[in-house]
Write a structure and sequence with these properties.
The complex is a heterodimer of chains A (509) and B (979). Chain A has eight helices and 17 strands. Chain A is of the alpha+beta class. Chain A has a 17-stranded mixed β-sheet that branches. In chain B, strand 24 and strand 25 form a beta hairpin. Chain B folds into eight domains: 212 residues, no CATH class; 96 residues, OB fold (Dihydrolipoamide Acetyltransferase, E2P) (Beta Barrel); 86 residues, OB fold (Dihydrolipoamide Acetyltransferase, E2P) (Beta Barrel); 72 residues, OB fold (Dihydrolipoamide Acetyltransferase, E2P); 77 residues; 76 residues, OB fold (Dihydrolipoamide Acetyltransferase, E2P) (Beta Barrel), CATH 2.40.50; 85 residues, Beta Barrel (OB fold (Dihydrolipoamide Acetyltransferase, E2P)); 94 residues, OB fold (Dihydrolipoamide Acetyltransferase, E2P) (Beta Barrel), CATH 2.40.50. The chains are: A alpha+beta (509), B mainly beta (979). Chains A and B meet through helix 1, strand 3, strand 14, strand 15 and helix 7 of A and helix 1, strand 13, strand 17, strand 24 and strand 29 of B.
């Protein structure tokens, strides 16, 4: 019997390995904006469908095309096949684009969990552009792309570079070639995600006009960004006689921005390019209507008017703080156990790529069986602990460190320095601090334990902590629930709103 | 039932086959190294059986036995060690040479001396140490005078200041002998270890560098009262301990090695090969790193065993010395399961120490994360388990690959744990987080801690940290402490000497910044720097990298070299900028003067304590730009939906209110992060400004509601004085002051300003309301931006010649000077620049290649309009001559068609103007006229706000001047103005 058990365990471990290795790469750069220099915003009602806009320079004059982009991804044997289908038009300008691109993404896992991705075109791409009666037919398409994803406990960061070379035949004679060199940055996490890219287009025209072949060049830089955000809005109740107070509504929406700087020649009345170059700058946007979700309404009458009322209310509404709050005491000290649970519930899971069609039904390991081999990462955390799952997640994701023999000291009260360290570790930004140890701007810099000095500096820079009115951080103070709530609430706000800025403003300032 | 059993057996069989290779391998494991015993072990054991030691409670027992067994410090030969005997000078020198493995050399020197000595009879000193003293002279450790004293025939004649070889040696001299014989580098600077002893001033200054070297190498240390006692004598017991302390230093030179392991098995067998009859005892020792060592001891079973070839075989017993709980034994004391440390030399095991089996003692190298002093606990990151309590005995490769991110553990510290930091006894509270410490743990309790200075194991002289100060004038840099502390004044100041490094001549220092060669001035406070020092402690290389981070904010007040910015979180910060600070706008380098109050900026900052360095400033052009200022009747403010519902919208342009295109009730979105202060039940007039949000859509960016006005009016005037504190503006012509404030929409150059940004002498349009108390309040304050003088001249003349794509010459010309043409009767040549010059023929834009004075389509003798600047033709048009000048406002643009993104599909074909005035050349007055329509030919010249443009730039409401002909059908020149 014993051997059978061992065999079973071995089998489960093997299955689990298969399961985990399978599910890791799905957060690779989603590419839901395509690589053609356009912007998209997800259609909330249809999977894999995006409202999409891009600027077409093929006629020598920028024409904004609008329509849908459909993205379909399927994962099989370590590669993801993605199909992009664009149906775009500008009716007033009598213009349209139909384009289908199919590419394979191969992922390769590197050290520290990073995945490197390479994309190649697998089918002959199709693209037909029509502008004012002239048809541009894609004759040649070269594409190379490589990207890297760095998974952190709460955020996956990614970046990549690509090159596209396209050549079109013009129906009136001659060719147009476009070379696009793009760089992308992005991140994925629960509260917001951002993708930004900057693409340089070099356009080489060799049209035939009045039976005469000639050539001219153009250049454009297109910056695009797409963000998906969540924010909260407090809604008062209209009727007075209602069992609960006003509550929060979570709003999810997407925004995309496209900006270009184009340098194109001016044309004479016959359509020949002159030597005068025109600089054209424009910004267009694309957004979706917010999707509202009502959050739970906690019972926090006794906090009415308290300075931490809003953070606490939102954390209860989001169920980051357990219960409905009637016994909440803002002055109570927070234990390491409770803070870890709050943090893990606040950062949530990194969402899966919505375009990915997964076909791994066998890999869903039943949770009940898994418990057979359940082992706590900490000697002093029982598997039946109230927050066992959260602490285990914190350990497996690397927010706290444990090995089974080490101690978590769950009942010890958490200090500001420890809390900041855990938060910064969760968002994976320790590396923003100066090497080897930052000098923080806090008056009590020297009081900060060395391990927390870099996290404290990063937290200050990104606005999670700002010190008291006299510039003290008080790193060794034990956190009360009010301070912990404010800190976690700021983290959520940061993840939802501020992080986005760095990805968009980089391109649009 | 049967099948289940069968399955179990099958599993077992399978398991057996799976594991078989491992078991087979274990049995066949050959030891990595084999060590034999020593032949003289019994004799040594007998010699070491010191009567005075074994019955004493000496703390140095194990040191005495170990150094004895290794023949580094021998007894007197009569089983007496002489615990409390004071070490003499000659003994000290001899010990130093023995430690260096130069005993044989001393022996030879002594023999040579003895041979050379003539007067052997009168030579009184003990000659056993002559060789050592000779070596000391040869090595420059003692002077010739001291040497002569040492060899003086009559030692009693020597005075107290002389070198007496049999006098007790002082601790400082002993340190000097050991350090110099072992070739340790004297530490001349930063003798902070020795200086931390409170009696450092008693030491001979020439000895201090050597004492420091021994302290750093942990060979010597002070007493528990913080004294080093440099003038004290050295007992032999102390000497033994000192030698033992030096083992990590001297073992490599002596070819000795110390290991730790557990006795895994002991086996004996009889060896009768080659006629021998011996018992061989094999002791397998599993080392802590997993490899296997084997000891082989030989016991002859009968003396004089015979061999048919050579006769007698003399097989000697080999064994070793074993110290078990401070009792000396032979190798038979070794038992399976014992944990031992053992010292080997030349393939022989010399000395074995059995670890105390009742205590489980482990050593760990840890990084301290935090110290909970009251609870006696430390939070640590375990870096590795190590076999010894001395970091120097740990193999270097594993130390060099130390990484962070090990497992964390909280450990309890014994109340009387020995804590050494920099070789000085300290307490728990002195431990600094992040320091590396070597812990000794007995039964899971930390009993000893010692700070490990890994710098000693690496190339010395590389320093890294964050730069606090760079002073090229005085030639030094100061860093913060490695762990980022050092901003507190007391700590920073008192210890600043440890973090200040200097250079003699900057030309000899290599300086790098961000990976490229740079000047010392490029190294700024807040940079991460690496310094390489030479042996004198002077900087030879500085390499730095910056640590800029972005800060976003809005410029509130701009001083001559400061900016007060309001950051996103509402806090203010003042930063200093200079004319050299790189400033960017629209990805182009501009000057600091281009930063305006109200601008949104992104600054790269680097902070170092309270110093702030600005790397660059980028002016954002996106946000505060307005697209329009409106007033309307407020119908409803939707707080939840963040929108305004209004009717009767009018827009403000050129000091006037204009009816907006939209009719009926309009819902306007408010910018996401803006919440206007509009009471729930508000009604009345709402004044608001719109701007583009990031998506390019128009949204309300500022709104105020006015519901107490009895009268509204418009004023255009010059501001005489603005008093933002009192909220009052006095005007040059208007007698009544105008109040203004946070609720006034203040616009300048297309941006919203704050009240304190209004300057005197600004010309402005005011949309005001008067209250019941008679006061006038500005609802909109539109400051005129002085029109840019683009230097553009409108000329008209007949072409006398064209130098193709080079220049055009007019035989004479007229220049338009509002409201009429002025004739100039001189020839004028204007250059043509193909990159700039545009040519418009009757059919529209034409290639300059066709602009020629020869051939079929010659332009010679045609009259043209030329827009010229600085002698260059910017635009040439063949539009017909016109001298009838109209003024008015655009009320309609006919034929203009745009796509949904505002891109022009077809340009306007005609423009309709209202409030028309026609210039009467007779009276020099402007006559009123009816609304007039002008066609816009392909080659019409269009100028707006002094700049050349095309028809797409014309907007309804623009004030325009039209040059037309008498027929008044077409506009040949349109000059528009709008602000």
């Amino acid at each position: 019997m014993k051997h059978k058990k061992i065999l079973k365990t071995v089998l489960w471990i093997m299955l689990l390995c298969v399961f985990f290795s399978n599910s890791i790469y799905s957060h690779a750069y989603p590419g839901s904006m395509g690589y053609e220099g356009g912007v998209s915003a997800a259609d909330p009602y249809e999977d894999g469908t995006y409202a999409y806009r891009e600027v077409c320079f093929l006629s020598g004059v920028p024409v904004i095309m609008e329509g849908t982009l459909k993205v379909k991804k399927s994962a099989r044997q370590g590669k993801t096949t993605t199909t992009y289908r664009y149906d775009l038009s500008n009716i007033e300008q009598d213009a349209s684009i139909t384009r289908v691109i199919v590419m394979d993404n191969h992922t390769d896992e590197k050290e520290r969990g990073q995945t490197v991705e390479k994309s190649v075109i697998t089918k002959v791409p199709v693209e037909v552009v029509r502008i004012n009666g002239v048809i541009y037919n894609l004759r040649k398409y070269d594409f190379t792309r490589s990207g890297i994803t760095d998974p952190q406990p709460a955020v996956n960061y990614n970046t990549g570079e690509y090159t596209i070379k396209k050549t079109y035949n013009i129906s009136t004679g001659g060719t147009v070639s476009v070379e696009m060199k793009g760089r992308q940055y992005g991140y994925d996490q629960y509260w917001s995600s951002a993708k930004a890219a900057s693409v340089d287009l070099s356009i080489k025209y060799e049209p035939v006009l009045d039976g005469e072949a000639y050539a001219w060049d153009g250049f454009a830089r297109v910056s695009v960004s797409n963000v998906a955000k969540k924010s909260f809005k407090y809604v008062e109740n209209e009727p007075w006689q209602i069992s609960f107070e006003g509550g929060y509504v979570e709003q999810d929406w997407e925004e995309s921005i496209l900006e270009y700087n184009a340098y194109l020649p001016e044309f004479d009345k016959s359509g020949f390019a002159t030597d005068v170059i025109r600089e054209i700058n424009e910004r267009i946007g694309l957004n979706t209507e917010p999707v509202n979700s009502r959050l739970m309404v906690p019972d926090l009458k006794h906090l009415r008017g308290h300075w931490a009322e809003e953070p606490v209310k939102i954390l209860y509404s989001l169920e980051v703080l357990p219960g409905t709050g009637e016994n909440f005491n803002p002055a109570e000290y927070v234990t390491r156990r409770d803070f870890t649970a709050m943090l893990v519930k606040a950062i949530k899971d990194i969402p899966e790529d919505p375009d990915l069609v997964t076909r791994t039904t066998t890999a869903r390991t039943p949770a009940s069986r898994q418990k057979n081999v359940e082992e706590s990462p900490f000697a002093d955390i029982n598997t039946d602990d109230q927050f066992y799952n959260e602490i285990k997640i914190a350990s497996t994701r690397g927010i706290v460190q444990g090995t089974g023999q080490s101690y978590f000291r769950p009942d010890r009260h958490i200090t500001m320095a420890e809390a900041i360290t855990m938060i910064i570790r969760a968002i994976g930004l320790e590396g923003l601090a100066a090497y080897p140890y930052s000098i923080t701007a806090f008056i009590d810099n020297d009081e900060i334990p060395a391990y927390a000095r870099n996290p404290a500096e990063v937290a200050f820079r990104i606005g999670l902590v700002e010190g008291d009115s006299r510039g003290y951080l008080r790193p060794n103070d034990i956190l009360t629930y009010e301070r912990a709530s404010a800190l976690i609430y700021r983290l959520i706000r940061y993840m939802g709103e501020d992080l986005v800025k760095d990805y968009c403003d980089r391109f649009f300032d | 039932m049967f099948s289940q059993k069968l399955r179990q057996y099958m599993s077992l069989i399978i398991l057996f086959f799976i594991f078989m290779p491992f078991t087979a391998k274990a049995a066949a494991e050959t030891p990595a190294r084999i060590f034999t015993g020593i032949e003289s072990s019994d004799a040594i054991l007998k010699n070491l059986d010191y009567e005075d030691v074994k019955n004493s409670d000496s703390w140095a027992k194990s040191a005495i036995w170990e150094t004895g067994a290794l023949e580094l410090l021998k007894g007197y030969g009569n089983r007496i060690f002489g615990l409390r005997d004071r070490l003499s000078v000659e003994q000290a020198i001899a010990i130093a040479y023995n430690m260096a493995g130069r005993e044989a050399e001393a022996q030879l020197a002594a023999e040579a001396l003895d041979l050379a000595r003539e007067d052997k009879k009168n030579y009184a000193p003990d000659m056993w140490s002559d060789g050592y003293i000779q070596l000391a002279l040869n090595d420059g450790i003692i002077t010739q005078e001291e040497y002569d004293d040492a060899f003086a025939a009559d030692q009693r004649s020597l005075g107290s200041g002389d070198f007496r070889r049999q006098s007790p040696v002082t601790r400082e001299d002993f340190a000097y002998y050991i350090a110099s014989v072992l070739g340790l580098t004297p530490v001349n600077e930063h003798t902070h270890l020795f200086n931390s002893y409170n009696d450092w001033h008693q030491a001979n200054p020439h000895r201090i560098p050597y004492i420091e070297a021994l302290l750093q190498n942990k060979v010597m240390s002070g007493d528990n009262n913080g004294r080093f006692l440099p003038k004290d004598t050295v007992t032999r017991e102390m000497a033994a301990q000192i030698i033992k302390n030096a083992e990590p230093l001297i073992f490599p030179g002596l070819g000795m090695e110390k290991s730790k392991g557990t006795i895994e098995s002991i086996k004996s067998f009889t060896d009768k090969a080659d006629g021998k009859n011996t018992e061989i005892k094999l002791i397998n020792v599993r080392k802590s790193n997993g490899t296997l060592d084997q000891f082989r001891f030989i016991y002859p079973l009968d003396s004089g065993s015979l061999n048919e070839i050579s006769g007698n075989i003399n097989t000697e017993k080999t064994g070793t010395i074993v110290n078990e709980t401070d009792v000396l034994k032979d190798e038979t004391a070794l038992k399976e399961g014992q944990e031992i440390t053992y010292i080997m030399q030349n393939g022989r095991v010399l000395y074995v120490t059995v670890m105390n089996s009742t205590k489980t003692t482990v050593h760990k190298l840890v990084r301290i994360l935090s110290v909970d002093e009251p609870a006696g606990r430390i939070q640590t990151e375990i870096i590795m388990d190590v076999p010894f309590s001395d970091v120097r005995m740990i193999d270097e490769s594993s130390l060099n690959s130390i990484k962070t991110g090990g497992r964390e553990e909280i450990l309890s510290v014994s109340r009387d744990a020995l804590i050494y930091i920099d070789f000085v006894k300290k307490s728990l509270k002195d431990i600094e987080p992040q320091s590396l410490m070597l812990l000794t743990m007995e039964n899971n309790l930390v009993t000893a801690m010692e700070k490990v200075n890994l710098e000693l194991l690496q190339e010395s002289g590389i320093i890294s940290g964050i730069l606090e100060e760079n002073n090229p004038a005085l030639g030094y840099v100061t860093l913060y402490f490695y762990d980022g502390s050092g901003t507190l004044l007391d700590k920073g100041k008192s210890l600043s000497s440890y973090r200040t490094f200097s250079y003699i001549n900057i030309d000899n220092v290599e300086v790098y910044k961000n990976g490229s060669p740079a000047s010392i001035d490029d190294i700024n406070p807040g940079d991460s720097v690496f310094l390489k020092l030479d042996e004198k402690g002077n900087i030879t290389v500085i390499s730095g990298t910056d640590n800029f981070y972005p800060v976003y904010g809005k410029v509130r007040i701009k001083g001559s070299n400061t900016l007060q910015i309001q950051k996103g979180d509402g806090t203010y910060q003042v930063i200093s900028i200079s004319q050299n600070t790189p400033v960017f706008k629209d990805r182009k380098r501009v000057s600091a003067d281009d930063i305006k109050e109200g601008d949104d900026i992104r600054i790269l900052l680097q902070t170092s304590g309270n110093q702030v360095i600005v790397g660059e400033v980028t002016i954002s052009t996106q946000n505060p730009v307005i697209s329009g200022v409106y007033k309307a009747q407020l119908n409803y403010y939707d707080e939840a939906g963040n929108s305004l519902v209004v009717s009767g919208m009018k827009y403000f342009k050129d000091g006037l209110w204009w009816q907006a295109d939209v009719k009926g009730i309009t819902k306007l979105d408010i910018k996401k992060d803006y919440k206007p202060e509009i009471p729930k039940d508000a009604n009345g007039t709402v004044y608001f400004a719109t701007g583009k949000n990031l998506l390019g859509n128009d949204v309300v960016i500022r709104a105020t509601v006015v519901n107490d006005s009895i009268n509204t009016g418009l004023i255009s005037d010059t501001i005489a004085e603005s008093l933002p504190g009192r909220g009052i503006i006095t005007l040059l012509n208007e007698s009544k002051p105008v109040s203004y404030g946070e609720n006034t929409l203040i616009v300048k150059g297309g941006k919203l300003l704050e009240p304190n940004q209004v300057r005197s002498q600004d010309e402005a349009h005011f949309a005001c309301s008067s209250s019941s108390d008679g006061s006038i309040r500005a609802d909109v304050l539109w400051i005129r931006e002085p029109a840019e003088d683009t230097g553009l001249a409108l000329l008209r003349g007949r072409i006398s010649g064209i130098d193709k794509i080079n220049s055009v010459t007019l035989e004479s010309f007229s220049q338009f000077n509002m409201p009429d043409w002025e004739f100039v009767n001189v020839q004028k040549t204007l250059t043509i620049d193909p990159m700039v010059t545009r040519l418009f023929d009757d059919g529209g834009r034409t290639d300059l290649a066709e602009f020629d004075d020869e051939g079929e389509n010659s332009y010679k003798n045609r009259t043209i309009y030329v827009l010229a600047r600085e002698g260059k033709a910017i635009q040439i048009s063949t539009a017909p001559y016109g001298d009838v000048v109209y003024r008015g406002r655009i009320s309609e643009l006919e034929g203009e068609r745009k796509d949904s993104f505002g891109h022009i599909i077809t340009q306007a074909q005609a423009v309709v103007i209202s409030e028309v005035k026609l210039f009467n050349r007779e009276t020099w007055l402007w006559d009123n006229k009816q609304e007039t329509r002008f066609g816009l030919p392909e080659n019409a010249v269009i100028i707006k706000n002094g700049k050349i443009t095309d028809r797409s730039a014309l907007e309804k409401g623009d004030r325009i001047t039209v040059i037309s002909s008498v027929s008044g059908v077409d506009a040949f020149v349109v000059m528009a103005e709008s602000y």
